[in-house]
Design a protein that fits this description.
The chain has helices spanning 13-29, 37-65, 67-73, 83-89, 94-112, 117-151, 182-197, 202-218, 224-247, 266-279; strands at residues 252-254, 260-262. With 281 residues, the chain is mostly helical. The protein has a two-stranded antiparallel ribbon with strand order 1-2. Strand 1 (252-254) and strand 2 form a beta hairpin. Helix 6 packs antiparallel against helix 7. The radius of gyration is 22 Å and the shape is globular.
Length: 281
């Protein structure tokens, strides 16, 4: 979300809320301005290509050599003792992830509209980062839905057998929406996006994503190749959105070699200044 450096102090709360919301949307579509965006675009293309090639090779290998074996080793679908896994897996459902992030964005806008100066700047800095998280998951989920429809892979045991090659392209039902896994997409897009902003959370977030991935296998909702494909789509999607933000100087900076790094948030910057001032002689 944008920083309002000179708000109209005489305007009412509804007008401020409209201003905050409008500028939050406008900053996402403004003309890219970063001088190193071409270097970042080349690095994004190169990394995406290698990641996609390696991921596709792994998906094919799993499909041929492991999918059928793995799903036969899992407990039967509907096993009563799996109820904790059914609860846990919902933490990777894209509708729930997007609803939580969307609610956080609304709360930030509502509070920011009533604040001024530094406090508004701090809150809107957080809002920009929430926008990145939301769009990373949303774009990846959208791509995943298109792929599900086009590929039309049957979920484990659809048709009565553990057949990893049960494809009905453009079928359009949930039974043939196995590849890629939507939960894996959301979990890995969120894990990559959070890690891109706050690298110290990387281990925690990717542990969360792997746990979500495993729940989909235990519940026989997906084949192993489905969740690997979902993880690939989620990470590449979050990488693409990160470039979009960096090119517009939103939340990220671009180094001379094209590497995208997170900008220090307003909150952390302010805390550093306070700490420096307190330790100064």
């Amino acid at each position: 979300m944008p920083t309002l450096t000179s708000p109209d102090l005489g305007s009412g709360y509804p007008a401020q809320l409209l201003t905050v919301s409008g500028r939050a949307l406008a900053q996402l579509v403004r003309t890219p301005s970063h001088s190193r965006r071409a270097e970042a675009a080349r690095k994004l293309a190169r990394h995406s290509l290698w990641l996609s090639a390696a991921g596709a090779a792994l998906v094919i290998a799993l499909m041929v050599a492991f999918d059928q074996t793995e799903i036969q080793l899992m407990p039967a679908r509907g096993t009563p003792s799996l109820w904790p896994i059914r609860i846990l897996t919902d933490f990777g459902k894209d509708e729930y992830v997007l609803s939580a992030l969307g609610a956080a964005l609304v709360i930030v806008a509502l509070f920011a509209a009533g604040l001024r100066d530094t406090r508004r700047t701090l809150l809107l800095g957080l809002g920009t980062r929430l926008q990145y998280l939301f769009l990373s998951v949303a774009l990846s989920a959208l791509v995943g839905e298109v792929l599900k429809y086009v590929i039309g892979r049957g979920r484990p045991f659809v048709g009565g057998t553990a057949n990893p090659f049960n494809f009905v392209p453009f079928e359009g039902t949930g039974a043939h929406a196995s590849l890629p896994s939507g939960h894996a997409i959301a979990a890995f897009a969120l894990a990559f996006a959070v890690s891109a902003l706050w690298p110290r959370l990387r281990v925690f977030m990717f542990t969360y994503a792997i746990v979500i991935l495993l729940t989909r296998l235990v519940l026989l909702a997906h084949h192993p190749s489905d969740v690997v494909a979902g993880a690939l789509v989620g990470m590449v999607g979050a990488m693409a959105v990160r470039y979009w933000f960096a090119a517009r100087r939103l939340g990220f900076a671009i180094r001379a070699d094209g590497t995208i790094v997170p900008l220090a948030g307003p909150v952390s910057t302010r805390l550093k200044r306070v700490a420096h001032g307190a330790s100064a002689p």
